[in-house]
Amino acid sequence: MYEALKPIIGIFAVIGVVYVAVAVVTSLFLMDCTSIQAGQAVSPDGESFAVFEQRICKDPEQSWSRILTGKRGLHVRDLLMEIRGTTRVGLTWNSNQELVVSYPKSAVVKKHGRDSGHPRVTLRPTDPDRDGAP
User: Fold this and answer.
1) Which pTM value belongs to this model?
2) Pairing relation of β-strands 33-42 and 48-57?
């Protein structure tokens, strides 16, 4: 029984080592930046997910906001788009195959290449309300 657990423990050990290495490199080379995962949305069937990640830097030119997608059970995330000029991004699934991304009209969106394995993405720019928030 314990023999079957050895590969699983090994995988988690490798993930831990990689995580620590990334954290060390990030703290050494990106000291003026903070990276966060701001939100995640899972498709209705649970097979796909989308995440909104940000890197906020003292130098705004180095900052970015990204939307990535992936499939359940796979550790690969594919970059769908970058959104600059806002931290207000919404992710919702309209169906299992359609992801809706909402953001303020003032933001700049740069789409990245996609293949047929990704969900359809609907962009929904929003009007700011009276307080300036979407």
Assistant:
1) 0.64
2) antiparallel
